[in-house]
Amino acid sequence: MDMGSELGYSYRVLKLGGSLITCKDLPRCIRLDVLRNVASEIKKFVDENSNVKVILLHGGGSFGHYEASIVDDMVIVRTSEAMQELNYMVTKQLLRENLKIISIPGKFYSFEIVSQAINSDLIPLIYGDIRLDGSIISADDISIEIAKKLNAKLLYAIDKDGVLGKDGKVISEISSVNEIGMVIQRERYDVTGGIYSKVKKILENYMDAVIFNGGKTGNIYLALKGYNIGTLVRGKINA
After folding, report:
1. Residues 59/139, Cβ–Cβ less than 8 Å
2. Is 211:198 a contact under the CB 8 Å cutoff?
3. Which candidate, 148, 140, 150, places its Cα nearest to that of 54?
4. Please, is 238 exposed, middle or buried when counting C-beta atoms within 10 Å of its C-beta (0-12, 13-18, 19+)?
5. Which of 13, 52, 109, 166 has the fewest CB atoms in 10 Å of its CB?
6. What Pfam families does the record point to (predicted)?
7. Cα 199 off chain centre by
8. What Rg, from alpha-carbon coordinates, does the chain have?
């Protein structure tokens, strides 16, 4: 499905990683300076490209991942509350740029809801979440589903310059999971598998994606414009 293609629309699915927008080693700490810059660059792109529809997602970082890593009888409500708090702060910064954001909790996500938001000239903001049975809803998984249905460009903004290889340098292109091996360190609180899991899912779904540093000024805008900065994950060549 490629909604709006007949009207000349194209799509960008941009996921803001939790490691980008929150403090990695400090629970429930948001990086407001980064988030303000991200919001400004999204606004610039949206204003300049009326024929492109943007779908946003964000991860849990030191909010959701931290709370979900503590297993007790309150884990569901704590994790849900933490993600609502983080989403409120993300939404607030985007609204300050006059972006027409509508939040969609992961537990209530459906592609139909996203479609309705797009058709109403709104920008969906879906976030990772926890189900009532305690299982984790990954924003990575949702982003892949949306991008496949819309034939959209898939963008992952993280806190590193891309996927790092054994030498610590950025791998410019990946077309096989074996290219990165198991050298990528998992985030301390990452309950969704970290960068290795992200790349694996992209390749298994035969998607192309760009993984880049969203904290560097100008990168969000450049990625939305279509520049292959950071690491290009090429799954379509295996389709």
Report:
1. yes
2. yes
3. 150
4. exposed
5. 166
6. AA_kinase
7. 13
8. 17
**Cβ distance 43 to 98 under 8 Å?**
yes
Per-residue pLDDT of 105-164, as tens digits, reads 999 999 999 999 999 999 999 999 999 999 999 999 999 999 999 999 899 999 999 998
Token pair belonging to 120: 């109403």
Amino acid residing at 217: T
The Cβ of residue 9 has, within 10 Å, a number of other Cβ atoms equal to 15
Mean pLDDT of the chain: 90
In one-letter notation, the amino acid at residue 127 is Y
- SS3 of 4-41: CHHHCCEEEEEEECHHHHECCCCCCCECHHHHHHHHHH
Domains and CATH numbers, the chain: 5-159+211-226 (3.40.1160.10)
- Where residue 95 falls (left for φ over 0; alpha for ψ -120 to 50; beta otherwise) is alpha
Assessment of whether the complete model's pTM goes beyond 0.85:
yes
| Coil, helix or strand at residue 56 | strand
